[in-house]
Each structure stands twice: as C-alpha cells, then as structure tokens.
C-alpha cells in the first residue's frame, strides 16, 4: 500500500509540474530586434524596458527570437502591452504575433494601460523550440513588454510593480548581482555631466566606472536626442566634449556622439557600462557602499562598489534612493526671496521635449487632386488631430515641450506620447499642402530630452540672488553667463508648445558646495540634479555648465582619494589644491599626474 501511495504521489507531482511549466520572454532580449527599438525610459512607472515600433508611420521590420521551452505541449500565453491612445476609437500602435511562421489571429496593442492580456494557446512541438516574431502593423509606436507562457490557464502574471519585479527575476532565473570589479569612483549617468566627471577623475589616476542606461553616451547631446550644447566651455575637458552649434534635432549629433564616445573611451582608467540601469543603492550609516544595476537587454545584474559616487542621472535617483533630501517643483517667492518664483510654491517643472525634422526629396512633385488630399503622400491620423489641431511645422524645436504641470519622471511616457500625437497630427496638416508634396519625415526622437525633475540638496542651494548678484564664492569653480531661462506653458489651443522667460545676467559663479549631498557623506552631484532652486536651475541647466560640474567633482574625487577624506572635507581643507588644479585645465595647460 505504501508503494502504491508513493507512486501516486510521484504521478501527481509530475502532473502539477507539467501543468505549471512556464516561460517568460522579455521582448528587449529578443535575438533580432528588427526595426523595433529598446525603450527603457519608463521603468519607474511601468516596470521594465520594452520594444517600441518607432517607424514614423511606416511599419518596421519584425523582431524575432527563438525560445526553448521546458517541455512540449500547449501553453496559454499572455502579452503585456498597451494602447497608447486609449481615448480614441482608432488604435495607432497595433501589432501581431507570429509563432513558427503562423500569424496569431488576435491583434495586440488595443488595451488601455499596461496590462497582461491572456490571448489564447500556442503549441510547442517536439523540439521544445518556438520561434516568435512581433509584426508591427502601423509604424506608429506599437509597444510590447513581454510574453508569458504557462500550461496553467489561471497562472496570471502579477500586476503590482514590486511583486512583478520579484516575479520576473524568479521566472528569468536571475542570480544575485555580480561584482563589477574594484573602482575608486562610480559615476551613474552617461550624459555630458557624467562624462566630464569620469574623464576628469580618470586623468587624475582614479579607476572609474561610468554607468549609462542608454547604448550611447552624451545624454541630451547624443544622437538619440540631438540637442546642441550651450554655455561656457570653461575647462579643456568641456571643450573636448562639446558639440557644434547645429540646429536642435540635426544629424550633426551623430558625429558629436562619436566624438564623445572617443574622448571617454580613450581613457584607460574608465570602464564604460552601456545599457546598464541602476535600480537601488546600499548604505552603511550615511555612506553609500554600492549601487546595483541590471543590463536592459540581458537583465544580468551587477554590483558596483566604491568609496565615492557621482549622481549624474539627471533625475537624482542615487541621492533619492540613498535618502538624501531632494526638491522638485517651484519654491515660493518668499522662501529664498526670488522675484522670478511664484507667490506660492507648487510642483511645476520645465518639461520634456521630442525633437524631429523633415527633408525635401528631389522628385517631381505629384499633381494635386482636390478630391484626394492623400495624393500628396501621407495617411490620415484621426487619433492625433485633437492634440495637433491645425498646427503646421516642418521641424520640431525646443519649444515642442510638454509635461510642465505633470511629473516628468512618473508621467514621462504619457508626456512623450502626447508629443508624438502632436508631431503626427501636425505632419498630416503639413502634407495637405501640395507645396509640401516632396517633404518626408526624416527623423523623430523617441527618447525625450529632459530639463528638470529632482534636485539633490547640498551644503549650499543656488538661488536667484546668487545668479543675479554674482557673489565671489571662494569655491566658485563653475561659471556661467547664460541668461536665466525658465519655461512656461504657452497657453492657447496648442498645449504641446511652451514659451521661455529670459532674464539677462552677467557672469556668475556656482559654489562647489552645490555639488555634493549634505546628507550622504560620499555622494557628489553633477548635472541638472545639483543643489539649486527651480529659479536657480534656470541658467546653469545647459550642457557646458553641467559638464563643468562634472569636471569639478571628478577632480574633487581625486582629492578625496589622496587625502582619504569626504567631499565636504574638500571644501573645508583642500580648496587651494582644487583651485590650483582646475586653473591648469582652465588655461589649457596639461595636468601632470
């Protein structure tokens, strides 16, 4: 009897295993991305990188991968996706899934909000392999996060972000983070501020890890966003990393990105980690001990340990996770005596922009047929028109900006998508003019350029009076002369356009005390997350100035290592050393290690 019970137990156990066999496929890990792109901007709000069909109105090439299953048989499957214009009957971002070259009947991308949609069943054959393809139907920003397969039809994936993150790791079999190696300085953020910090520290002999969540360096100056650099090129490193003054959105950013990559990667003391996103920090007391990251394509996790860290994320993630004081939005006029601040503080920030442009192709213009306006060459986009209305432009400049009254971190996907609708609706209007028959969309960014979110508080907070009255700070190692430039909604019927209020100033200094956290003993800041008020950020938020910040903290990190001291101690005891060394690279003189 005991033997019979044991055999029955084994049978039932095997049956349970068979029913719960499952596979999670993250689309960003597909073997071939085709024309789809990996979009990792919105992990804080939706939980994961995903594949985006960014075809500017032309369906993109299929993404493909082959998956090995634990056993053959029929699997239920769920698809995590969304309709990015849910308020309209038309759905712009639809796609199909192809299994082993057979197209599944259901259309995806039609559900409101990021959801797991249980679609049906698929059969896995004797080889235990299944080829999966994502087939874009429209070229209008279809998106797919993941596909989950299970033999249990009730094995519904979790919905809450924290639970889903844990579940993903378990399903993917992701081990604990591996050590990335030994470093003197970890710089998180590969924009120009982070690059400046990494290069300055490396040239002073520090071993540097430069972590960037995008495939290329440069941040807003990169070929993914294409903003030209502005501000004072105060140090030679800033000059090396600066761009030409090409029009925003211009292809000149491609060569600029190559130059930035070349300058950074020429430094033997810098290890660059692209497609690597930080997700948490660990502390002992008031010091960060390490930052944990994951690769946005493979999900492999890595731990970065060092005595010193630089938050150059723009959004202030490292300081935020470490518990440093941060500010967002606008201070009240009375808090710092700022005439440009509102009477009452609020959450408004400067917004996010998507740059784009078009090109005239050299072909004979088609004859205009008033009965068929599409003879000039573009399809109707009714889902975009309530945003674009009757606006017409042939390129998008900085003032194509949205999200000032929203949260530029957690609402970032909605902000980006709103501008997409403005662009596509605008383009339909442009193409109704027969004179524009030969115009074609050339390029549209899908990575947003940000201006403002969190600011990490240091021992000093830069404010309007510091920029206007120009105190001669003894630690004023960053200098700028660019006007205070604060953006506001333009008002009127085009909510995707802004205006700027400029306040002319003379050259002023930014104290080094704005570049390290007052709460975390080994954390520097460089970039737009430095210690400032909303008004104080208005002038120095441009890239030459933030690169200066990076250079200063890179040199300060070297002083910290030499003297086994904190960033605050550099201010207290080593300003003369900092001034002497920075004066050399300010003048263009070679610094000798």
From TrEMBL:
GO MF terms held by the record: 4 iron, 4 sulfur cluster binding; metal ion binding; oxidoreductase activity
Transmembrane segments: none
Matches recorded under Pfam families: FAD_oxidored
Keywords, sorted A to Z: 4Fe-4S, Iron, Iron-sulfur, Metal-binding, Oxidoreductase, Signal
Entry keyword Methyltransferase: no
SUPFAM superfamilies from the UniProt entry: FAD/NAD(P)-binding domain
Domain of life: Bacteria
Annotated signal peptide: 1-18
UniProt cross-references to InterPro entries, sorted A to Z: FAD/NAD-bd_sf, HdrA-like
Matches recorded under PANTHER family: COB--COM HETERODISULFIDE REDUCTASE IRON-SULFUR SUBUNIT A, FERREDOXIN:COB-COM HETERODISULFIDE REDUCTASE SUBUNIT A
Protein name: FAD-dependent oxidoreductase
């Amino acid at each position: 009897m005991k033997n019979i019970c044991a055999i029955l137990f084994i049978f039932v156990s095997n049956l349970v295993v068979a029913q719960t066999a499952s596979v999670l496929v993250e689309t960003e890990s597909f073997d071939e991305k085709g024309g789809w792109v990996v979009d990792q901007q919105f992990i804080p709000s939706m939980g994961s990188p995903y594949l985006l069909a960014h075809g500017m109105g032309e369906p993109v090439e299929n993404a493909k991968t082959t998956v090995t299953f634990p056993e053959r048989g029929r699997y239920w499957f769920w698809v995590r996706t969304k309709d990015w214009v849910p308020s309209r009957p038309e759905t712009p971002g639809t796609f199909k899934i192809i299994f082993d070259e057979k197209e599944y009947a259901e259309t995806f991308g039609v559900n409101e909000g990021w959801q797991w949609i249980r679609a049906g069943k698929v059969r896995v054959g004797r080889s235990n392999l299944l080829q999966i393809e994502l087939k874009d139907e429209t070229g209008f920003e279809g998106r797919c996060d993941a596909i989950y397969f299970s033999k249990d039809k009730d094995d519904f994936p979790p919905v809450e972000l924290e639970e889903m993150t844990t579940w993903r790791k378990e399903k993917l079999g992701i081990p604990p983070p591996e050590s990335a190696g030994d470093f003197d300085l970890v710089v998180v953020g590969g924009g120009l501020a982070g690059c400046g910090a990494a290069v300055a520290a490396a040239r002073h002999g520090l071993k540097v890890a430069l972590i960037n969540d995008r495939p290329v360096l440069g941040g807003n100056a990169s070929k993914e966003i294409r903003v030209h650099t502005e501000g004072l090129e105060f140090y030679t490193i800033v000059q090396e990393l600066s761009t030409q003054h090409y029009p925003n959105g211009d292809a000149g950013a491609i060569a600029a990105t190559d130059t930035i990559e070349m300058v950074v990667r020429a430094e033997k003391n810098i290890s660059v980690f692209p497609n690597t996103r930080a997700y948490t920090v660990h502390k002992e007391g008031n010091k960060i001990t390490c930052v944990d990251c994951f690769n946005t394509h493979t999900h492999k996790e890595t731990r970065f340990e060092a005595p010193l860290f630089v938050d150059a994320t723009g959004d202030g993630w490292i300081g935020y996770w470490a518990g440093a004081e941060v500010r967002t939005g606008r201070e009240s006029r009375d808090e710092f005596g700022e005439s440009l601040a509102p009477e009452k503080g609020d959450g408004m920030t400067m917004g996010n922009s998507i740059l784009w442009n078009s090109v005239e192709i050299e072909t004979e213009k088609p004859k205009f047929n008033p009965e068929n306006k599409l003879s000039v060459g573009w399809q109707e986009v009714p889902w975009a028109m309530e945003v674009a209305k009757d606006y017409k432009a042939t390129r998008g400049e900085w003032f194509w900006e949205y999200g000032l009254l929203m949260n530029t971190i957690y609402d970032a996907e909605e902000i980006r998508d709103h501008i997409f609708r403005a662009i596509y609706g605008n383009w339909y209007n442009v193409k109704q003019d027969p004179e524009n028959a030969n115009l074609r969309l050339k390029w549209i960014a899908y990575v947003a350029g940000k201006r403002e979110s969190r600011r990490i508080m240091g021992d000093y907070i830069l404010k309007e009076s510091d920029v206007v009255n120009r105190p001669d700070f003894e630690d004023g190692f960053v200098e700028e002369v660019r006007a205070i430039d604060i953006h506001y909604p333009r008002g009127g019927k085009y909510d995707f356009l802004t205006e700027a209020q400029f306040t002319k100033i003379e050259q002023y200094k930014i104290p080094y005390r704005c570049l390290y956290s007052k709460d975390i003993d080994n954390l520097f800041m460089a970039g737009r997350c430095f210690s400032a008020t909303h008004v104080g950020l208005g002038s120095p938020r441009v890239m030459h100035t933030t690169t200066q910040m990076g250079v200063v903290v890179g040199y300060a990190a070297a002083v910290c290592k030499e003297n086994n001291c904190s960033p605050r101690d550099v201010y207290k005891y080593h300003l003369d050393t900092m001034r002497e060394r920075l004066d050399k690279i300010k003048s263009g003189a070679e610094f000798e290690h």
